[in-house]
Design brief:
heterodimer; A: 120 residues; alpha+beta; globular; B: 451 residues; mainly beta; six-stranded antiparallel beta sheet
Chain lengths: 120, 451
């Protein structure tokens, strides 16, 4: 069985987007992870950004640890910066399944909808 | 009149069919791509291509192009990686989120758990052994003791049946291997948030060796499904083997499907179809620039299963936006109020074919063609032409641009579905090539047949 057995949805406010992306990149997850625009009405402008991913035990343990104040060491960031970055993130983790539905359910629970073009 | 087949022609044709693979579309040298999840050696978890995809559920960050052009698709952002999966050719029927019974052995006391859980009411249960079979684990469970009142021993599994309302049927293989079912009142499938039961299995005495126990009910989706052995009227002592739990739509019981995870579903004796799954949220791949500037013709093949109509999804698109960029094409799966598939071919004027399709989930093998200079545009689904247009496409050739897969420009219109194969070739493929390519793709696409 794949080690990627969880689904994670991460949400960050628009004003903290750069912090969320900086944290994800510093953790080795690549650039611009939070790329889904959200707002309470689904209309512009976005108030939040989010991502959804299949994640493994290592990621889950890190998030659980951070929730307890046990933050990972990340090169280039001070402990204060790391703690501050985690504090602006909202993360929900569920067993892997329908990732799309997980994303919709969690963002709706936060009162957010995707900002999408009306037509293409 | 007597029909005498031309053996030479037939031999050549059969040889062509036997030898055809999607890369053959590029014989003679044409631009384009072939992405084929069936070839797991072409899939990697990282964009650099150092960690191969080995297991269903693994993320996919690099897909090697089999066209010979080296236009490998990549994804550098972890959260935007697609997921590799397999599903039987006939599609998924077993709706349990995980049919693999945990390999835990030992006595399970009151309050103990047998993961997910095994609950006891006045009885003693011991998992004597767990054997790994091709269909998953099989537990040997000994149940004994004298319940003070009506007692039960239950195997709790499967919170959250995948999908579904209406009539559903639950089943499992239960085989008595020792002891007697005397004093067992019934064996039932329950769900924990609805009482008292969905339906009984056959009475205990009828459960002889090898019986597949079955119960039917409606909308089993909520709550925990519980395979429960009720004991009444005195001491019990029996041993059973338990395996292959399954829940499916309808009132009939079909062959067991092994559900290891949502991305790993197999069925004995049935071909597995590997796929890449963009999640409909933020997953996508992109190639380097593909230089189509030497041609005004293109043929696109896509074997997909659309899972949701909630989105307007981008299956593939040349450039960041085919609606505003000249020399582009796109194949879009347009969910929303009127589910349709859209093929767009554009010189400096956009030609659009929008054809209504059935509601998701729906499997399709698409074949689309466009030629700018002759304003030729056509779209086939599962071997049948479903649309064509001679509307103006303007002038020029196709562009030297990246090909986006799963999401427009990597930012919007995410496709929610499974991709079983893609091919794009910078020419008008012949009718025979289209026939063969569709035939090749339909074989690896579940719940799709050529008309």
């Amino acid at each position: 069985m794949s080690t990627y057995s969880y689904s994670a949805v991460c949400v960050v406010s628009a004003e903290n987007l750069h912090i969320g992306n900086q944290l994800a990149e510093a953790l080795g997850h690549g650039p611009n992870n939070h790329s889904v625009a959200l707002s309470p009405t689904g209309s512009e402008p976005p108030t939040h950004y989010a991502c959804r991913a299949q994640v493994n035990d290592v990621f889950v343990a890190m998030v659980m640890g951070a929730a307890e104040g046990d933050f990972p060491e990340i090169g280039g960031l001070t402990p204060e910066q790391i703690a501050g970055a985690f504090s602006v993130m909202q993360i929900d983790i569920q067993p892997a399944g329908d990732g799309y539905q997980h994303f919709i359910d969690y963002t709706q629970s936060l009162g957010l909808q995707r900002v999408m073009p009306e037509e293409i | 009149m007597r029909y005498i087949p031309n053996q030479e022609i037939l031999t050549q044709r059969f040889a062509t069919q036997r030898n055809f693979t999607l890369p053959r579309l590029f014989d003679g040298g044409f631009q384009g791509i072939v992405f084929d999840p069936l070839n797991i050696a072409t899939l990697f978890q990282d964009s650099a291509g150092t960690t191969p995809v080995t297991t269903p559920g693994d993320p996919v960050a690099r897909v090697l192009d089999l066209s010979g052009n080296g236009h490998h698709a990549t994804q550098t952002t972890d959260s935007s990686r697609m997921t590799y999966g397999v599903v039987p050719k006939g599609g998924r029927r077993n709706l349990v989120p995980n049919s693999i019974i945990p390999a835990t052995v030992g006595v399970v006391g009151s309050g103990g758990t047998y993961g997910p859980s095994l609950s006891l009411r006045g009885l003693v249960a011991e998992v004597l052994s767990v054997t790994s079979e091709v269909f998953g684990n099989e537990i040997t469970l000994k149940i004994s003791g004298t319940p003070s009142e009506s007692g039960s021993c239950s195997i709790d599994m499967h919170s959250g049946i995948v999908g579904g309302s209406g009539s559903q049927t639950a089943s499992a293989f239960i085989q008595r291997t020792a002891g007697s079912f005397a004093n067992t009142g019934s064996i039932q499938i329950l769900r924990t948030n609805a009482s008292p039961q969905i339906s009984s299995f056959p009475t205990a005495q009828q459960l002889t060796d090898g019986v597949r126990a079955v119960a039917s009910g409606s909308a089993l989706g909520s709550g925990v499904l519980r395979w429960s052995f009720f004991a009444t009227g005195g001491a019990v002592d029996f041993t059973i083997k338990f395996s292959r739990p399954q829940v499916e739509v309808g009132s009939s019981v079909t062959n067991y499907q092994r559900v290891t995870t949502a991305f790993d579903i197999t069925e004995s004796g049935v071909q597995s179809c590997p796929y890449l799954q963009p999640d409909g949220v933020d997953d996508w791949l992109v190639t380097p620039n593909i230089n189509f500037s030497g041609t005004d013709a293109v043929t696109v093949f896509g074997a997909v299963r659309c899972l949701s109509d909630a989105n307007i999804g981008t299956l593939l698109e040349l450039s960041t936006n085919s609606s505003t960029t000249n020399g582009t094409f796109a194949l879009l799966d347009r969910g929303n109020a009127n589910p349709s598939v859209s093929w767009r071919s554009r010189g400096n004027v956009e030609n659009v074919i929008d054809i209504t399709r059935g509601a998701a989930p729906i499997s399709s093998v698409y074949a689309a063609q466009g030629r700018i200079s002759t304003d030729f545009s056509t779209l086939r689904r599962n071997g049948v032409e479903i649309g064509s247009s001679t509307a103006d496409q303007g002038a020029g050739n196709f562009a030297n641009a990246p090909l986006y897969i799963g999401r427009r420009n990597g930012t919007t219109n995410a496709f929610n579905g499974q991709i079983f194969g893609l091919a794009v070739v910078g020419k008008l493929a012949s009718a025979e090539e289209i026939r063969l390519a569709q035939r090749e793709l339909i074989k690896r696409t579940p719940q799709a047949t050529l008309a």
